[in-house]
Amino acid sequence: MHRYDWILLAIAAALVGGGLVGALTTVPMEYGLAAGFVLATPFVYDAMFRNPPLPASDFQRAAAAIVWHALLVWTVLAAM
Question: Is residue 1 classed as helix, strand or coil in its secondary structure?
């Protein structure tokens, strides 16, 4: 597997793991999902900014960052 395959796997594992924590324990689902999003965020940053797979335009990176942060903020607010 290539580096980006591992990053995608880590992002998916963090999100699914957060959902499973919420589903299988006494931790509320919102907290589990919020923790999964926070845990996945460093992997998203690494894939988007530190070592992007292709030279993308600044607009594409900015749009992807805005969407990710919108989901992150929405999930954390839902957990409150």
Answer: coil
Domain boundaries, the chain: 3-79
The tokens describing 42, both together, are 């460093």
Q: Report how far Cα 12 is from the mean position of its chain's Cα atoms.
A: 8
pTM over 0.85: no
DSSP state of 25: S
Euclidean distance between CA atoms 12 and 28, whole angstroms:
20
**Nearest in space to 17 (alpha carbons), one of 37, 43, 1:** 37
Predicted pLDDT at 10: 94
d(CA 33, CA 29): 6
Contact 19, 32 (CB under 8 A): yes
